[in-house]
Amino acid sequence: MLSDRNSGIILLIALILMFVRIPFVLFDGNYIAALMEKAKMGKPVDEKTGHAKIRAKEFVCPECGYTEEKEEYESKLVANIKYTCPKCKKDGEIQIPYKRKKVDGVDALVFNCKACNEKILITKKMKDPKAKGSSVEDDE
Length: 140
Prior knowledge:
Distance between the termini: 84 Å
Helix content: 10-25%
Mean pLDDT: 77
Radius of gyration: 24 Å
Number of domains: 3
């Protein structure tokens, strides 16, 4: 076993490595990782304006500079959803691929309730699905 002096030195080294944001392994094989917030991938930023380049074909990590093609990156995205079923009123959580599907003319994330198997839609801008065979009429 380590003495109190040695364990104090190891703790000091661990704190320094955490400050520098370097993950490391202690002698007994346990991992200690720095409490660091991960940078999120995003579109590249224009140096002159500071705004994201919205038509870029790749995503870039702002911290390390790693680049990934748009199609490859978007295929890895996952939606973590906490929901309350509108039919059975039970709460649930689900993880689905972040792929929008056309449902009744509206883009939506589609999944089923785990309790009652009801089809639930998460639509863009909370649009209502279009009814089949009806036309849009303005109320006057």
